[in-house]
């Protein structure tokens, strides 16, 4: 009976899903100004917020059938979509309020927005004139936010039956939404890469920049590294960084019968081999985990570490530059949060340096990985 229930649930989820569209990206060279000050970051942020809000408002006129067609799904959860929409609106209002604090320095894209009704009103009539200084950016940005919004609504349409970063199952999970304005955390998953590889380059690069990030490793990949090198070599690899787990292998932990052992086994390996770098965090592959898994994670002292800014660097359709440009656009939109890269992808060698250079004078902060430690852990 248990097997039959699993199969029926799996088939139901499969039947609801269809092939997603290619991930959204925006060529940042269409934006006419470099982000060389906090005020100029805010100008670009206000522009992206209003463009996304305009796209979000337009979707509220779509009925269920129209949403299914647009999202390329056979079944959708309308309540989940509405919940995510409301959460997005609340975040947009908070973000725009933060971005308009510098309007006395540069009034571009500044409107009198004090509450939700005025935000919705301005979003509805937001447009960029053809002769505007920002005209070359306007249409590419509209297309980006339409496609990016579809990504989010598609995840919402499948939640909570299919877990993802779009929502939390409990207080044992976080996605960066609670972080302060202009503060970001770098995370890398699916490693370590084969030797020599991107993980080696990346950890060395971060140390040279006096930065730290959280690496979510796969148990089998870490064991392969240990077998080929040594414990000391692996400890040197992650020196100054934080290491959480992504399970023993890269597969969904939502319908896998051995999901608990996958997490326990990989977490024990990291804790034993990398005691100075280990953090009690689990990053679910594909963002998928069981809705009823909270008791397990809490009993193990683990937090589920999600994200709100996805580089989509694993997508074959995106180049390294496009992935970096996508991340920057989402940083402007959400203004804080957890950025997800993969250190098994060579794209990060180009994407990360470009991103740091593009934001170097923007007044942003990069949260140290140890600052993300659960309060009860007491530090490393």
UniProtKB/TrEMBL annotation:
The keyword Oxidoreductase does not apply. One of its GO terms (cellular component) is membrane. PANTHER family: CHITIN DEACETYLASE 1-RELATED, GLYCOSYL TRANSFERASE-RELATED. Keywords: Hydrolase, Metal-binding, Signal. Residues 1-18 form the signal peptide. GO terms for biological process: carbohydrate metabolic process. Residues 182-369 form the NodB homology domain. This is Polysaccharide deacetylase family protein. One of its GO terms (molecular function) is metal ion binding. CDD domains: CE4_NodB_like_6s_7s. Pfam families: Polysacc_deac_1. InterPro entries: Glyco_hydro/deAcase_b/a-brl, NODB_dom, Polysacc_deacetylase_ArnD.
């Amino acid at each position: 009976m248990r097997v039959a229930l699993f199969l029926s649930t799996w088939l139901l989820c499969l039947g609801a899903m269809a092939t997603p569209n290619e991930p959204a990206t925006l060529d940042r060279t269409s934006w006419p100004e470099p982000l060389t000050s906090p005020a100029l970051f805010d100008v670009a942020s206000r522009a992206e917020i209003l463009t996304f809000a305009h796209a979000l408002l337009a979707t509220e006129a779509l009925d269920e059938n129209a949403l299914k067609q647009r999202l390329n799904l056979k079944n959708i959860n309308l309540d989940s979509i509405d919940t995510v929409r409301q959460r997005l609106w609340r975040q947009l209002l908070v973000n725009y309020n933060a971005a308009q604090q510098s309007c006395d320095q540069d009034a571009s894209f500044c409107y009198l927005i004090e509450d939700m009704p005025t935000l919705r009103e301005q979003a509805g009539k937001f447009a960029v004139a053809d002769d505007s200084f920002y005209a070359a950016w306007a249409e590419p940005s509209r297309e980006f936010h339409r496609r990016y919004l579809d990504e989010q609504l598609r995840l919402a349409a499948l939640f909570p039956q299919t877990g993802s970063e779009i929502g939390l199952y409990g207080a044992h999970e976080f996605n960066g939404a609670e972080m302060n304005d202009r503060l970001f955390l770098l995370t890398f998953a699916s490693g370590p890469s084969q030797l020599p590889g991107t993980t080696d380059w990346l950890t060395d690069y971060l140390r040279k920049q006096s930065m730290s990030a959280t690496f979510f490793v796969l148990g089998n990949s870490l064991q392969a590294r240990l077998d080929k090198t040594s414990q000391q070599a692996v400890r040197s690899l992650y020196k100054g960084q934080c290491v959480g787990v992504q399970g023993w292998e890269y597969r969904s932990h939502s319908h896998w019968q051995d999901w608990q052992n996958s997490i326990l086994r990989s977490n024990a390996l990291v804790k034993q081999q990398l005691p100075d770098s280990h953090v009690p965090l689990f990053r679910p592959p594909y963002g998928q985990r069981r809705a009823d898994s909270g008791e397990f994670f809490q009993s193990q002292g683990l937090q589920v570490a999600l994200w709100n800014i996805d580089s989509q660097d694993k997508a074959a359709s995106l180049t390294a530059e496009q992935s970096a440009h996508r991340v920057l656009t989402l940083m402007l939109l959400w203004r804080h949060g957890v950025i997800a890269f993969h250190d098994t992808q060579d794209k990060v060698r180009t994407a990360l340096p470009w991103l740091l250079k593009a934001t170097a004078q923007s007044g942003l902060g990069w949260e140290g990985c140890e600052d993300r430690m659960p309060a009860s852990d007491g530090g490393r």
